[in-house]
């Protein structure tokens, strides 16, 4: 089967990182095309006309959009190794629930933390720490959210590990003080090649965020 | 499956709850419906959904499943011997998930803006809402259902909002059918199915409910 896999990508995007990690976990060869979001390519606009966002996976010419939908697709098509979702329906629902929680909370609240000031920033900081503590409780004593092996929820969350330095610096907080187990979990994930090869350097993410803040006109 | 205990914690007007009701009906699953008071949440609801404290929650043999579309996928996977809701092909499944996600991201929130705002904000919300419905109409095309020949995941995600259209139209003073006739025709044809007609609510009742909510929120 001729397998052409292209990823419309953005190195600092946590959503694109999820897809890159999934592709690496499955050992899939793919071509990454870095997008310039201020000047979106005609391919991006054609492949994702509804949202016009990355990541987009293009498999044999057909697009799949939305990071966790792409991850599920990858898991279903390349089902010969490294299962990302459990096989039991209840555990699958549980994994989907926590990935959905991460989607609803971490990026938007984190964004409010680094893109706003004053009261909104302070309440976002409080909310973000609360979310991370809830995730820490869900992790419990397990090595990964998935249990013994890295899985769907780990993959959904770990790209935000690259944002910890940004949250700490711009939010004036200490992740290791607030959520030591989560930091430990992040470091454990980084021992995996699929993660360490993929995750952006925390400093690079911070610089990218500073750039966005400048463009948004936020101090 | 013999010996299955299924309870649905729900609220009569919730389009999210309606999704689960349709899925359970499609699969012929017997369940206990438990109406929840959202202003005075039960200990059971808080225990079963401590993170979001929201309905719907499906409790299956004592174990909770939360978030309507996650519940619908769970139902599809557990009761897999009849009425498949998601396609079997991974690419088609990804497309179904995409459109259900689109409905989730857009329809409720934009619809809510229609009944909670006024003036320019309301006008902008109405325009966004119609734009989203037109996109969905385009995706439906000439198919009887989003799923093709049979009712599926995207249909279940979307059609409950039809119960709320009369409320949006009356509060927003606009006509959805004039803008999206094919989509309304589709909704009416879905209502021919018992699983849908028994799960959706009377639009007049929903409108009365919205009027009450608006009063409580202090919106004219």
TrEMBL record, chain A:
Catalytically driven reaction(s): RX + glutathione = an S-substituted glutathione + a halide anion + H(+)
Leading EC class: transferase
SUPFAM superfamilies assigned: GST C-terminal domain-like, Thioredoxin-like
Ranges where the GST N-terminal domain occurs: 3-82
UniProt keyword annotation of Acetylation present: no
Single GO MF annotation: glutathione transferase activity
GO cellular component assignments: cytoplasm
InterPro entries named in the record: Glutathione-S-Trfase_C-like, Glutathione-S-Trfase_C_sf, Glutathione_S-Trfase, Glutathione_S-Trfase_N, GST_C, GST_C_Tau, Omega/Tau-like, Thioredoxin-like_sf
EC number, UniProt record: 2.5.1.18
Origin superkingdom: Eukaryota
UniProt keyword annotations, A-Z: Transferase
GO biological process, any: glutathione metabolic process
Stretches assigned to the GST C-terminal domain: 88-216
UniProt family annotation: Belongs to the GST superfamily.
Name listed for the protein in its UniProt record: glutathione transferase
Source organism per UniProt: Dovyalis caffra
Lineage start: Eukaryota, Viridiplantae, Streptophyta, Embryophyta, Tracheophyta
From TrEMBL, chain B:
UniProt GO molecular function: glutathione transferase activity
Principal place of residence: cytoplasm
Domain GST N-terminal stretches: 4-83
Keyword Manganese applies: no
E.C. code: 2.5.1.18
Keywords, ordered alphabetically: Cytoplasm, Transferase
Coiled-coil spans in chain: none
GO biological process: glutathione metabolic process
Pfam families: GST_C_2, GST_N
Catalytic activity, as annotated: RX + glutathione = an S-substituted glutathione + a halide anion + H(+)
UniProt record similarity statement: Belongs to the GST superfamily.
Function: Is involved in the conjugation of reduced glutathione to a wide number of exogenous and endogenous hydrophobic electrophiles.
Name the record gives this protein: Glutathione S-transferase
